[in-house]
Amino acid sequence: MNLKLLIFRARSRGVPVYCCLLLCVYLVLKYFYWRPLETESVPKHLRGYLKFAENFKFPRHKLRAAEIKRLSSLVELLNNEREVFQTRRYGAVRGDTTTLVVQVHRDAERLQTLIVSLAQVRYIHTVLVVFSHSYYDNRINKLVASITFCRYMQIFYPYSLQLYPNKFPGIDPEDCLSVQGKRDKYCSNRDGRLTEHKHHWWWKACFIFNNLDWSDNFKGTVIFLEEDNYVLPDLLYMLRYTTRTLSYLQGIHVMSFGRPYAKYLDYDLLSVLSWRPPFDNGLAFNKTIWQKIMSVSSYFCMYDDVSWSYSLLNAFGKLRAGRADVVATAAPRVLSTSMFPSGRAAVRQISAWLADAKLFPVNVKAVMLYGSSGRIDSGSKPPPWGNGGWSDMRDHLLCLDPLMSTTTANFNDLTATSDPLTSSTTADYLTIAHHRVNMSDAEIRHLL
Ligand SMILES: *[C@@H]1O[C@H](CO)[C@@H](O)[C@H](O)[C@H]1NC(C)=O
Ligand SMILES: *[C@@H]1O[C@H](CO)[C@@H](O)[C@H](O)[C@H]1NC(C)=O
């Protein structure tokens, strides 16, 4: 056969036909498959918050001395101003306003999915959301400034790695990290990139409870979140139940809304147990508890562990009760997105998980577990030594006085230890409280 003729035929008929076919297949796949995955889990009116692409990363970039100087004074100014936005719409912040504080570093892509989730929380218009940043960037600020669904404010950790790239509390010449190869010299075995998270956590708690205009007689609850969290719509709805359960209990107690996701959890159950990590996502407490923590702050600040939650466990251990009890939702209302490749991927998976979750339960039960020898979980002591990374005296001193003056790795322990609610079938439980919703929206608003 004539080769020339063959080529001619393919050109005139075959290739365009194949091309058209491929294009059709692509369009059909895109329409039926790709589009729903991308957007269905985020409601249309909230897609404007998705400003960062799925693979977005800030470039590693060290500021020059002059830029650092300018940024430091800007941060100082902003921390002094402490401006609350959207008060015209939602009213001034009061001494009993529930506050959500979000620790933000550089993961803007996950932060925007947290914001999308916050926007869907019922009663979110009654709270104040505080974003505490350890990385200053105009694109993050723009994202936060686009929030219209609640009151919000921004504070900035003034001892961040961004502002101290080459000296303590950043990576100091005396840190082994920066003198590698010259081991004969004394060096401190700390990593400023890891210590920043604990410092920031502590600084922002100090700032919220001691440094805001309404801090002096602050009666509200503070819920601690991180940029890689995702909250469920009934978070604040459940807060009422946990708050009410606290009033039935003696001693020190905190609330927790976060734990790793698992199937078949009871969305209408609260469990009372000794607090320990990994119940550190969505931890919540008020100023009374904060003052108790402050009274043992040295056990937080001098405990050799870069994780704030294990340090807090150590500090609670030094209180007279020897532990803090927690009222925790048996099913999480705060999830971590850190184990997913991106915030968007997390949203897709979480919406699938929650398709048949019974959120907004009408009957809620709070239980404490008892076995034949008393409380099941009374023995959760902190390890006598921390996991290390926090042995430098300079870190201790900065932590002890943080307001003289805030994420990198994620230390959330996702390997949940066995759940006493499911692992001990022989245990009896004592019902502490039984709640049923019959409050009007006005009453609820008052409680929040
Ligand atoms: C904090 O919560 C506890 C327990 O509900 C309560 O007894 C205490 O009065 C609260 N503190 C403040 C300052 O509101
Ligand atoms: C609901 O509210 C009414 C009064 O408004 C009260 O009598 C009742 O005990 C409340 N609780 C339940 C479970 O109905």
TrEMBL record:
<comment type="similarity">
    <text>Belongs to the glycosyltransferase 16 (GT16) protein family.</text>
</comment>
<feature type="transmembrane region" description="Helical">
    <location>
        <begin position="15"/>
        <end position="34"/>
    </location>
</feature>
<keyword id="KW-1015">Disulfide bond</keyword>
<dbReference type="GO" id="GO:0009312">
    <property type="term" value="P:oligosaccharide biosynthetic process"/>
</dbReference>
<protein>
    <recommendedName>
        <fullName>Alpha-1,6-mannosyl-glycoprotein 2-beta-N-acetylglucosaminyltransferase</fullName>
        <ecNumber>2.4.1.143</ecNumber>
    </recommendedName>
</protein>
<keyword id="KW-0325">Glycoprotein</keyword>
<dbReference type="Pfam" id="PF05060">
    <property type="entry name" value="MGAT2"/>
</dbReference>
<feature type="binding site">
    <location>
        <position position="228"/>
    </location>
    <ligand>
        <name>Mn(2+)</name>
    </ligand>
</feature>
<dbReference type="GO" id="GO:0000139">
    <property type="term" value="C:Golgi membrane"/>
</dbReference>
<keyword id="KW-0479">Metal-binding</keyword>
<dbReference type="GO" id="GO:0006487">
    <property type="term" value="P:protein N-linked glycosylation"/>
</dbReference>
<keyword id="KW-0472">Membrane</keyword>
<dbReference type="InterPro" id="IPR029044">
    <property type="entry name" value="Nucleotide-diphossugar_trans"/>
</dbReference>
<dbReference type="GO" id="GO:0046872">
    <property type="term" value="F:metal ion binding"/>
</dbReference>
<dbReference type="GO" id="GO:0005795">
    <property type="term" value="C:Golgi stack"/>
</dbReference>
<keyword id="KW-0735">Signal-anchor</keyword>
<dbReference type="InterPro" id="IPR007754">
    <property type="entry name" value="GlcNAc_II"/>
</dbReference>
<dbReference type="GO" id="GO:0008455">
    <property type="term" value="F:alpha-1,6-mannosylglycoprotein 2-beta-N-acetylglucosaminyltransferase activity"/>
</dbReference>
<keyword id="KW-0328">Glycosyltransferase</keyword>
<feature type="disulfide bond">
    <location>
        <begin position="301"/>
        <end position="399"/>
    </location>
</feature>
<keyword id="KW-0808">Transferase</keyword>
<keyword id="KW-0464">Manganese</keyword>
<keyword id="KW-0812">Transmembrane</keyword>
<keyword id="KW-1133">Transmembrane helix</keyword>
<comment type="pathway">
    <text>Protein modification; protein glycosylation.</text>
</comment>
<keyword id="KW-0333">Golgi apparatus</keyword>
